[in-house]
Structures are given as C-alpha cells and as structure tokens.
C-alpha cells in the first residue's frame, strides 16, 4: 500500500503504526504487518514523536536503558513526565 495515494486513511495508518510500535514491533516488522513501506512507517513514527513534543513542550525521549528496576510502558512514562512537569 502506498501511503501517499490515500490521504483520507493517513490518520488510521498512523494509529496502526503507533499501536504496533507500542506493542514492541520494530519498523520492518510493522511495515510487513501493515503493508506499508519502511519510509511510511518511519514517517508515521516521526509524526507521533513530533506530536508528543508539541503536546509536552519538550523532547519526548524515553528513559535511558538500565536506569532502574522500574519498567514503564510508553503511556505510563508519558503520564509520569506530564505529572512532573505540571508541578
């Protein structure tokens, strides 16, 4: 599927890419599952990062690996960052 050909479904494709990414799939696996090119998957993930940066007002970076025993999902991590920035 060429993501440039059907702009009305762009939002739905981005949601699917982000959902698969949150479940642990890499970009190449997502491309195969969603029937998109690697570039379309990469663009969708970049668009989501840009959206989160605008939402939080700062770079949306996950915590460094090996930083602690506590494992957070992406949603939990973002909620924790938003709570800290609201203080």
Oligomer: single chain
| Average pLDDT figure | 78
- Parts with pLDDT < 50 across at least 5 consecutive residues: none
What is the chain-wise order of helices and strands? Answer: HHHH
Decide which structural class fits the backbone. Answer: mainly alpha
The general outline is globular
Q: How many H/I helices?
A: 4
Distance between the termini: 45 Å
Radius of gyration: 15 Å
* Proportion of beta-strand residues: under 5%
What is the number of beta strands?
0
Helical content stands at 55-70%
For the sheet with most strands, the description reads:
none
How would you explain this protein's 3D organization?
- It is a single chain.
- With about 90 residues, the protein is mainly α.
- The protein has a domain at about 5-60.
- It is about 60% helix and about 0% strand.
- The protein is built from four helices and no strands.
- The chain has helices at about 10-20, 25-35, 40-55, 75-85.
- Helix 2 packs across helix 3 (about 40-55).
- The longest helix has 19 residues, at about 40-55.
- The protein is globular, with a radius of gyration of 15 Å.
- The termini are far apart.
- The model has no long low-confidence stretch (mean pLDDT about 80).
Describe the secondary structure blueprint for this structure.
Blueprint: H1 10-22, H2 27-34, H3 38-56, H4 74-86
Helix pairs in contact: 1-2, 1-3, 2-3
What would a concise description of this structure say?
This protein is mainly α and 87 residues long. The protein is 61% helix and 0% strand. The protein is globular.
């Amino acid at each position: 599927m060429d993501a440039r050909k059907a702009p009305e479904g762009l939002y739905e494709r981005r949601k699917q890419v982000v959902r698969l990414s949150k479940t642990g799939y890499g970009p190449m696996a997502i491309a195969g599952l969603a029937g998109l090119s690697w570039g379309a998957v990469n663009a969708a993930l970049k668009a989501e990062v840009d959206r989160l940066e605008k939402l939080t007002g700062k770079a949306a970076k996950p915590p460094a690996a090996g930083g602690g025993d506590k494992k957070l999902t992406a949603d939990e991590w973002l909620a924790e960052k938003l709570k800290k920035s609201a203080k």
